[in-house]
Amino acid sequence: MEPAGEVDLMAGSTILHQHELRMNAFSDQAYICYMYMKILILLFVSSFISLTSFAQGAGTPQQKVVAGRKNSAKQQDKPYIILISADGFRHDYAEMHGADNLLRLSKQGVQAASMIPSFPSKTFPNHYSIVTGLYPAHHGLVSNHFYDPERAEIYSPRNRRQVEDGSWYGGVPLWVLAEQQQMLSASFYWVGSEADINGLHPTYYYRYSEEIPMEERIQTVVNWLNLPEGSRPHLITFYLPEADHAGHRYGPEAPQTRQAVQFIDQSIQQLTAAVAETGLPVNYIFVSDHGMTAVDTAHTLSLPAVIDTSNFIVVEGDVMTTLYAKDTAAVRPTYAALKEAENGFTTYLTNQTPAHWHYNSKEDSTGRVGDILLLADWPSIFSPPDARRVVPGRHGYDPRIVEDMQATFYAWGPAFKEQLQISSFENVHLYPLIAALLELPYQHKIDGRLEVLEKVLKKPLSGKKGKK
Ligand SMILES: [Zn+2]
Predict the structure, then answer these.
(1) What domain range includes position 318?
(2) Which DSSP symbol is given to 54?
């Protein structure tokens, strides 16, 4: 489908900035554009040692299977869930762009007015909030790119070593929760699914690649569901990047974005029709990580000159830029100077951010939230460094203030009530819902609460099986 193209290609060059611990996050396009990564590797092979494993998989990547796992007898009777995310699928896209199949399927089940992303409304933090029930400051993926002071390293979705290293990821993702209880899981992509989180991968998973055709992905899901009961996954994640790619490149209302939404709509139709032939009671949850908004590309903001990079590590972003103090004495005077310089952006000390962000130094479990945040005022964005192109669609703003940031939630299948419309809710509440549906108990603390979404399930749950 729509390639991430220029945007991702250009973003690759920013990886070089890691050497000077200054980085930007302008291209948060879904994950990685495989094709362009290969070109980059050819160009910069010596600089991209950590990425070379990505190049080895020329051709389509093979499914990875963790050997020796079986569903326990108890788990074999549990329901099935396919959790689908369409990256950047704004809460109003289905109506606006005529996703008739999705509207028809979800009208038979549950539709939310919107799903509210966690702050910041970026891809990695939100996909990971959905599967952990934690706000980003609690699970550790505080943005697509962020600095980890303990490791003295910047995390990037383009760094294979980091992406596959479970020690970067906090919380207990749903597939880990399932596997810990001898319930098998499978992933046709999800943030974190390629890492050994708590030592566990999903039983079936893939290294991210946009080269695998949709028909093959759908057939793989069907094949999983046709496996003998002992080997059949009950939780399947599925990810579609097309709406985000097109929304960035052409804007949320562009005909190309409509085409991407139509492609997703047809893919879901094909998936559900093919899965129906298995005869299994499969439940679907269709969500997105965030929305998309048209930004002011004519008057981009420059990074204020008052930032002294000898005192701060700067992780630049299109909507949010984060300063990590090398010398804490510099925080107050720099903050004061930035407040003076505000013109199209707002400056925050991380101990004074809005409470509903849950993004502050007090809740920062990993030290990755930083000391000072610069948030562009919608529809402004910070200008890209180097000569990179400004694209018309962006996300990352406060989803409570910029409604375009809000995401989608639809659910249908035998476990869900029919023709139910619910109001907006925060994405951290999905975790206890899915855990309850699969009857997977857990003891660890999360931010999501079962009572928020329990009402969408048909059967009242006996007790609170999701949480003791
Ligand atoms: Zn994006």
Answers:
(1) 312-394
(2) H
